[in-house]
Design brief:
With about 280 residues, this protein is mainly β. The protein is built from one helix and 25 strands.
């Protein structure tokens, strides 16, 4: 955005802010898919990636403070209600008036729409590559937003995919929501770096070892242990059919891998043998 010259004299001043104009994707038809809302933005809201931070750029994810019902930047670590995504800001909005005084403004919002992932901001930083990216993708998809780089919701982890693996495999963030079938040989699946909003499932389709391990270690929650490193099925005759679901969740205030072990009976009175490593 460019301003007028000094003292209202015609001319071009320095850029006050820069942004990509188009937030929606899908052509003119996309506009009929937009559900619009509105709300009051707190004067204390900030866009940490902008200069000045008091100018909120379009594409900023918004949360709603429970006590006041007012909007601010979405804060994945918040405890005031802003930890839940409420909407997306579709226009630039300053939180100060022309004199630099903090003010609250009513703004339009998007509560569902086809939007460009590259234009979305989490606390002022790009959504893509953010540590909260997959948490945001899941929430946005469930709200009715369709991101242009993943309209089906695969990266959001809400539309499962499947893949077969016959050797060890290092899981990546882009595998979010995938069900892995381990066949023909012992297999160790190493989870990606821990981020909120991730989920995976692992199924053993032959009588071989199945190991699901944390990349960092000490961040898996199992029975009586909140800092386990891995889960292993290794007893011959008790491995085919083994199934482990893992998701990333906050355990108290700390992000952890939360495994769900699906115990499958093999013969009368016999269950799988599971090894938990700390």
């Amino acid at each position: 955005m460019l301003g007028a010259g000094h003292f209202g004299i015609p001319g071009v001043s320095a850029a006050q802010s820069t942004y990509e104009a188009e937030l929606l994707w899908g052509g003119d038809e996309s506009r009929i898919q937009v559900l619009r809302g509105a709300g009051r933005i707190l004067s204390s809201a900030v866009d940490a990636g902008n200069t000045p931070t008091s100018v909120l750029r379009k594409g900023l994810l918004l949360g709603k403070v429970t006590a006041s019902g007012k909007l601010k930047q979405w804060d994945p670590d918040g405890t005031d209600g802003s930890q839940f995504i409420d909407s997306i800001l579709p226009v630039e909005s300053p939180t100060t008036d022309g004199y630099g005084t903090a003010v609250e403004r009513f703004v339009p919002t998007f509560v569902a729409a086809p939007v460009k992932a590259s234009q979305l901001l989490i606390e002022g930083s790009a959504l893509v590559g953010s540590t909260a990216e997959f948490q945001a993708r899941r929430a946005l998809h469930e709200m009715g937003f369709r991101l242009d780089d993943d309209p089906q919701g695969y990266l959001a982890g809400v539309n499962p995919r499947s893949a077969s693996k016959s050797t060890d495999y290092t899981v990546v963030h882009a595998d979010n929501g995938t069900i892995f079938y381990a066949d023909t040989a012992n297999a160790t699946f190493t989870l990606p770096a821990l981020r909120a909003g991730l989920s995976f499932e692992f199924v053993r389709t032959s009588d071989h070892n199945l190991v699901v391990a944390s990349a960092e270690g000490d961040n898996m929650v199992v029975g009586n242990d909140a800092s386990a490193d891995s889960i292993t099925y290794s007893s011959a005759g008790n491995r085919l059919g083994a199934r482990i679901r893992v998701r990333s969740e906050y355990f108290g205030t700390t992000l952890k891998w939360i495994p769900e072990l699906v115990v499958v009976p093999f013969t009368t009175g016999t269950l799988m043998t599971i090894t938990l490593a700390s």
